[in-house]
Amino acid sequence: MRIVLRVLRAELLQLARDKRALFSAIVLPALLYPLFFWGSQKLEDVGEKTMAERSVTIAMDLSGLDEDTRSAFNEELVTRGDATIRTVDASAILSLEDEEEQRLAALAIIEAKVNGEEAAPPEGAFSEASPEANPEMDPGAGPKEDSAEDKGEEAKDSGPDLLVIARSMGEVPNQRRAEFEFWYDVKSDDGREALSRARDSARAVESLQVVERRRDLLGGDPALALDPQPTDLASAEDASGAILGRLLPFIVLLVLISGGAYAALAVFAGEREAGTLETLLVQPVPERSIAAGKFLAVFTAGMATLLVNLASLAGCVAFGLAGSETNGLDSGGGLSFTRLLAVGIELPACLLLCAVLCLICGRARTFREGQLLVFPVTLLVMVPTAIVLRPEVSLTVMWALIPFAGTALALRDGLEGDLSLAMAALVTASHLGYTWIALTQLGRVLDAEKILGGGGDAKSEGHLRQASGRHAMRWGFAVVMAMYLVAGSIQRWNMTAGLWFTFWVFLPLFALGVAWLRPRAKGEPRRLLPALGLRMPHPLHVLGALLLAPALAKGAQHLFHWQTKLIPLPQGMDGSVDALAGFPEGLFWLVFFLSVSPGIFEELLFRGSLLESMKRDWKWPKVVLWQGLYFGLIHLSIYRLAPTAILGALLAGLALRTRSVIPAMALHMTYNATVVMGARSQDQENQDEWLTTRVFDADWFAYAPWAAILGVGLLIAVRPLPKD
Predict the structure, then answer these.
(1) For the chain, which residues make up each domain, given as ranges?
(2) Angstrom distance (rounded) from CA 605 to CA 593
(3) Which of 42, 110, 328, 452 has its CA 20 to 30 A from that of 420?
(4) What DSSP state is assigned to residue 694?
(5) Helix (H/G/I), strand (E/B), else coil: 158
(6) Which tens digits make up the pLDDT trace of 493-507?
């Protein structure tokens, strides 16, 4: 412990010496919050005031409307700001049938006068008229008429910003509908403002006329059989807690990343570049003590940043700079001290985030590389935290075990006054466990032999540096992201084309790329087939894998039903039948695309090239864990994450035991075929004559557990063939 405190003191003093970076990372953001909120409000006020005071010119032909509608429209237009009206005769535009000719005629009116030179609109398209010549205009009640006295010389040299043409449609006088056409130039600010005012005026007139006509014709609105009047029974404190519960988890983690990343980069990547890290590691002290001291320094810097920024935000809310009256955080809705203590549930997430930052920056070879890794960490942290924005999701045991999602939901429940002590304890224990795992890995990263072992030939030291394992991790992440962005997009556009591309182009190319580019020791030949896991397995291992498939399919069905209790499916979605929606018709194509193709190419990538790279540097538990994680993520569905992750882990264990990817292919194809036929047998609309009995309810399925026991026995008892 004394070594940890000494390292902590030294790192804090080192961070404090760089006063400029310390000020920029911790103090400056807190000072900018009041300026940001005040400036945002001022800009919004100035923008609204400027647009409200803007004077616009509108050319209107309302001759097709009745007098009441014209008057109502003009009155509404007057209330929305200063507007100068020009009356026009737009009958020529209405008489044109070609849309392009109509556009040119309307454009001629909009550009009627430019720099004092009057344009020549089509004959009859524009004609100024006095109020006497235009009975629809009432200068005493409507907007002011354009004149040199009102607008000066500027009015003579500028055309209207908007052209409004209105006419009545229908034969029955009391049921005629007014149709408005608005012609404007989207590049003009005045044109967009005039359009907004005129459109709002027309909608207001429509709302009034709808109520009046329903009352006159029907004696009221028959659709208003029910008049719901919602009343929020939540107290002001509960309302404020609900709002803060959706915002505070993001604020806490983002601010902590700002201060923690600055410190983590300085104490790891910065010291590695400066050479001081190697000097520290040659001392006769445990690397875990060094890792703990540096972690505490990063955590201290992150918490200092968080506390200063939260204090600044609280001050902005208290003084009304954050728009608290509009978002429910007014002074009357302040949270009690007991509710505010719920913020402490974020402390385990803060510890975990600082440990992750230390681990990422500890692996970075340069300061610049560490900076580039901070942004992906931010995204990975924000994604699970976003679950707090879904009001239908409640804190359960499963969510409590998910990093950052559990603390976000716990904080939301705590601020709303609904957090139980048992769930708070589970969230805290799980996140502290993840933190311990991260710190354990950090101690291994700081192993002096690994840090000081550089400088030799990279290929010959590839195994020592775990280059093959890191190679597999990077490629696995790239596969998942490419599946989301590329293959998933093609499948959404065209399912059949997407399946052909995914299984017969996307996965094979990645499998070959991972195997071909795998790091090799000096003098090691490049052998593609072993790098893909394509070795001859023992025949009894293939048989054992086939015997496991029915029991695994039945187990996956039970697991899926249990999972729906924790993560309910969207309304109307059936996990078995609807999973086949969008796939090519016919059982043959279902089996081909959902059994044969994934059984070959998913295994070639995951249990082939990726697993072969992982097992060179990692132990079995780590290989199985990462295989399950990547395999679950690749299927692009949270509802299939648990079953597919478990299946991926089992297939990885099978490939490791048999030293070949071929038994995993056999198990994968048989398992998928069983699941597909089971789902097909429940689909009444696409029933096959020979598949009338539900697969999972068939008599022979009762022997599946015994077959699985025999399969496991073969896999354990029969030794794999020796390596070639």
Answers:
(1) 2-43+236-452, 54-218, 467-717
(2) 17
(3) 328
(4) -
(5) strand
(6) 888 888 899 999 999
